[in-house]
Specification:
Length: 211
């Protein structure tokens, strides 16, 4: 038996609970951005996905706090640039602390003592401890919902990748298990992608017979 739930009948807190509890696990974009003064901001966002292979592009969705855009959302809206640092198991505590509601003038990279590296094509720097950095330029910024709970869904074109050399073999094949990619579950929970297993997609004729 399935329980039918109409989101229109729910409180925002409950639609939030269902969204983060049913769409799991979510990869984490540990995102660097800068404000107009060049101040660096770092925060994790799990409303994150790859969304085009050939542009190529990613999407992240960032909300509001107390009716005002979170710092990362405001920064990306004003600069059009961000860097996704892929979060890993080893970085979980730094990722988690970087989600605290620090005042705008406190940089999470300073608080956490994280080394940063300059990016090549955008202003936000990269987090050295992350094995994969994805430099992005905004292609689309779509507002979802209304304040005080609006979000912006940013579609960012990938303009530069930086991948730790030990993760790459055979050209552009990435050793995904070695990343130990951190992912978000519902509530305060995380998980780690440690045990990939494979399946080849069969030709349809091998299932139903040739036509
Ligand atoms: C693992 C994790 C994933 C998160 N994902 C999102 C998200 O997808 N969207 C969002 O608006 N907030 C998300 N948050 C909350 C933000 O990280 C948090 O509000 C942070 O303070 C925002 O920082 P900023 O104001 O410096 O941008 C997440 C928090 C954690 C710990």
């Amino acid at each position: 038996m399935h329980i039918a739930i109409d989101p229109a009948a729910l409180d925002p807190a409950d639609t939030h609970k269902l969204t983060i509890g049913t769409i799991v696990p979510r990869p984490i974009a540990w995102t660097t951005s800068v404000d107009g003064d060049g101040r660096v901001n770092l925060a994790p966002f799990s409303y994150f996905m790859a969304c085009h292979s050939y542009l190529p592009a990613v999407a992240i969705s960032i909300g509001s706090r107390a009716g005002k855009p979170k710092d990362t959302r405001a920064n990306i809206l004003s600069t059009g640039e961000f860097v996704v640092n892929i979060a890993t198991a080893a970085l979980v505590d730094a990722v988690n602390v970087s989600a605290a509601d620090f005042p705008h003038d406190i940089s999470e990279t300073d608080v956490l003592g994280l080394e940063t590296l300059p990016s090549v094509k955008v202003r936000p720097p990269r987090v050295a401890a992350s094995p994969i950095h994805i430099e992005c330029v905004v292609l689309h910024a779509l507002t979802l919902g209304d304040e005080p709970r609006a979000s912006t869904l940013f579609v960012g074109r990938i303009v530069q990748w930086h991948i730790r050399s030990d993760l790459l073999d055979d050209g552009y094949r990435v050793d995904q298990a070695k990343i130990e990619a951190l992912a978000r579950m519902g509530g305060p929970f995380y998980t780690v992608a440690r045990d990939p297993f494979g399946r080849q997609i069969p030709p349809w004729e091998s299932i139903v017979g040739p036509r």
